[in-house]
Write a structure and sequence with these properties.
This protein is an alpha/beta fold. 33% of the residues lie in helices and 20% in strands. It has eleven helices and 15 strands. The chain has helices spanning 6-12, 65-76, 82-85, 91-96, 130-141, 162-175, 192-201, 217-221, 226-238, 256-268, 295-308; strands at 2-4, 15-17, 21-24, 29-34, 37-42, 48-50, 99-104, 108-109, 119-120, 145-150, 180-184, 205-207, 244-250, 273-278, 312-315. Strands 7-10-11-12-13-14-15 form a seven-stranded parallel sheet. Strands 1-5-4 form a three-stranded mixed sheet. It has a three-stranded antiparallel sheet with strand order 2-3-6, with no helix packed on it. It starts with a strand and ends in a 15-residue tail after the last strand.
């Protein structure tokens, strides 16, 4: 059997091209067939290089006096927002409208969703002073509409963190009269007692993201369940919540039919507001982007959502869960 050197092989085969990645031949001894003869080859190291993002995923840097003022306040006071830590592409637009997103209950999650950049592990004990810190941050930034979210705290067996949610919302309202709120909650394992605490404190919007399609849920969200998320959304509406909301990411390997099925499932769960955006890989450890969804496809979903009668339906590559959140209270 003849043996090709890596250098000689490189003259024959350099890379394998796919629609989204350029892949060098793997680093392993292998065998290939050429002109009916078998050749033993030593292959170079595998390197996966992402191609550049498409034009529709490029955003302008945030500008404007309102953004500049808020950015200075955030930096000078060492404030922490999801907008900055998550490098949200809509930060300038949202801050210009007086909207920002804050995470509570620490920054370590008990779940290990493969799309999310938040750390996974054993969370620290609840810091009850965090509620006032968030409320003061909102006060300093002069936020008119705040979105609250949190890590999953399955370690807190008594209430899954729902009591801290209530304490934080009360403190925010105390220091910021007239503010409106969206609570982007975890599923609380579907336990009604914990969900009731959030509904009873009456944020203007309660959201819970289903994130992906039924088929991909086990791979993408790991400890979550597709039907449990739907049940949480339906239960909140049935118990009197005025506005409910959910979000989906695209580009994880779902089909158009599966996205449409998910939209209908959210409609059947009486959800008022839906956001759909492009998934982007937070790090090499997370799920890779399977495709960059064309703007025309996002428009198809928006037209479907509007025809189904959702109160608000945001569908665009750059849409994130809190995108245009302030208008969703109406």
């Amino acid at each position: 059997m003849k043996k090709y050197s890596t250098a000689k092989l490189a003259q024959k085969i350099e890379t394998l091209e796919t629609p989204f990645y350029s892949i060098d031949i793997p680093d392993t001894e292998s065998v290939m067939k050429e002109n009916s003869e078998w050749f033993k080859v030593d292959l170079p190291r595998k390197v996966i290089r992402h191609k550049k993002k498409p034009d529709w995923l490029r955003v302008k840097l945030p500008i404007g006096p309102k953004y500049a003022k808020l950015r200075k306040l955030v930096d000078d006071n060492n404030l922490h927002t999801i907008c900055t830590s998550g490098s949200c592409p809509n930060m300038g637009e949202c801050w210009g409208e007086g909207t920002a997103t804050f995470m509570i209950l620490g920054n370590i999650c008990t779940r290990s969703c493969k799309f999310c950049g938040v750390k996974t592990g054993r969370p620290l004990p609840v810091d009850w002073e965090e509620a006032e810190k968030v409320a003061k941050s909102i006060q300093i930034m002069q936020i008119k509409h705040a979105v609250l979210t949190s890590v999953d705290r399955d370690d807190l067996k008594e209430d899954m963190g729902s009591k801290f949610w209530v304490a934080t919302i009360k403190k925010i309202r105390e220091l910021n009269p007239g503010i409106t709120l969206e609570a982007l909650i975890p599923d609380f394992q579907g336990i009604h007692e914990h969900i009731d605490r959030i509904v009873n404190i009456k944020p203007e919007v309660i959201s819970h993201n289903i994130e992906t399609t039924r088929r991909l849920t086990r791979e993408v969200r790991v400890q979550a369940k597709y039907d449990r998320s739907l049940d949480v959304l339906r239960y909140m509406k049935d118990t009197g919540q005025r506005r409910t909301k959910s979000g989906i990411m695209l580009g994880l390997g779902e089909t158009k039919d599966e996205v449409i099925e998910t939209i209908y499932d959210l409609h059947d769960a009486k959800v008022d507001i839906v956001t759909i955006g492009q998934y982007l890989q937070p790090s090499k450890k997370h799920l890779q982007v399977q495709r960059f969804v064309n703007p025309d496809e996002f428009l198809e979903y928006k037209e479907l959502g509007e025809n189904l009668g959702f109160k608000h339906f945001e569908s665009n590559a750059l849409v994130r869960s809190s995108y245009k959140a302030r208008k969703h209270i109406n």
